Each structure stands twice: as C-alpha cells, then as structure tokens.
Amino acid sequence: MEQQRPYLTTTQAAERSGLSPSYMTLLLRQGKLEGFQVVRDWLIYTDSLEAFLATTRKPGPKGPRTKA
Q: What span, in angstroms and rounded, lies between the C-alpha atoms of 45 and 2?
C-alpha cells in the first residue's frame, strides 16, 4: 500500500516560504517543485517545498534601478 505524501496549497506554501503564490505556480510549471493540479488549483508536496527552500538561490534585484 502506497502512502500519500503530505501537500500544501500554493497559498499555504507561499506563506511558509515568503514567496508569492504566482512564483510557486511558476516553479511547479518549470518542474522545480513537485506537486499536482486539481482543476485550476495547484498543490505542492511538502517535502519538495522543504528541499527547494534548503537550496541556495541567487538573490533578486534589491529595488528600482537608478539611471546612470
């Protein structure tokens, strides 16, 4: 018998990670997070989210660019 993996909604995962729900969806579509889609909503496996958050990521821009 196969055990079911725990999962979170994109909103719950966004709150836990500090990232936006739309970015969570992008990561799912790119295959960087594991999860599944139910109708229009995505669900993210908790272990996949924890593994993604444990990796080092390149920081993004730190605000508006100034014109030189």
A: 15
Rounded mean pLDDT of the chain? 88
3-class DSSP state of 26: helix
Of the candidates 16, 35, 18, 39, the one whose C-alpha atom is nearest the C-alpha of residue 26 is 35
Pairing of β 7-9 and β 41-45: antiparallel
In angstroms, the CA 68 to CA 64 distance is 13
Q: Map residue 36 onto helix, strand or coil.
A: strand
Give tens-digit pLDDT for 28-51: 999 999 999 999 999 999 999 999
Q: Taking the model in full, what pTM does it have?
A: 0.77
